[in-house]
Amino acid sequence: MLRVNVTPIPYEKMAAPDLFSQHAVRDDAVPQGGRECAPFPACSAPLLPGGLPYAKMAAPGGSSARALVQYVVLRGDLQREPLSWPLGALVAQACHAALAVVHAHYGQADTGAYLAEGGSMRTVVLEALDEGALKTLAETLKQHNIDHKVWIEQPENIATCIALRPYPKEEVHQHLKKFKLLK
User: Fold this and answer.
1) Is 35 helix (H, G, I), strand (E, B) or coil?
2) What would the pLDDT profile of 115-136 be if each residue is shown by its tens digit?
3) Which of 13, 70, 106, 178 has the most C-beta neighbours closer than 10 Å?
4) How many CB atoms are closer than 10 A to CB 104?
5) Strand, coil or helix: what is 105?
6) Does the keyword Hydrolase apply (predicted)?
């Protein structure tokens, strides 16, 4: 269980970008008489709101940061005739899927590092031609053990979007390269 304790700072004392003082605390990781920041209990780096370290994860065997990216694949046919969904509804589908997969995989190191990037987070939104293409992608991701969320819009029970948890680009790009950027 994850709790987030938020302490508002008076307006006159606010300094960007730290608008709130937050610490994420895992119920199962609270030592006797103290609290431990999650998901990085041994981290000594400065913390961002939410208790995440302010640092990028280094690439294995190198000193450069790994390029973490969250891919979101949205059905393009939803915006065209005969479905003609409004733009806001399509954006909502992508937001729902992206938030759901991040929530489900919050404890993953790559997810924490991605969130710690703050305004530098990289998200790529791609287009699947239709529901069949989306379902085929979901099956491919499942076969390769790639964490993702298929968003099913209710009550219509329509698969609208897939979001992957944040990954290093080189780990997942090969499964997504046939999709074009959503326009």
Assistant:
1) coil
2) 999 889 999 999 999 999 999 9
3) 70
4) 15
5) coil
6) yes
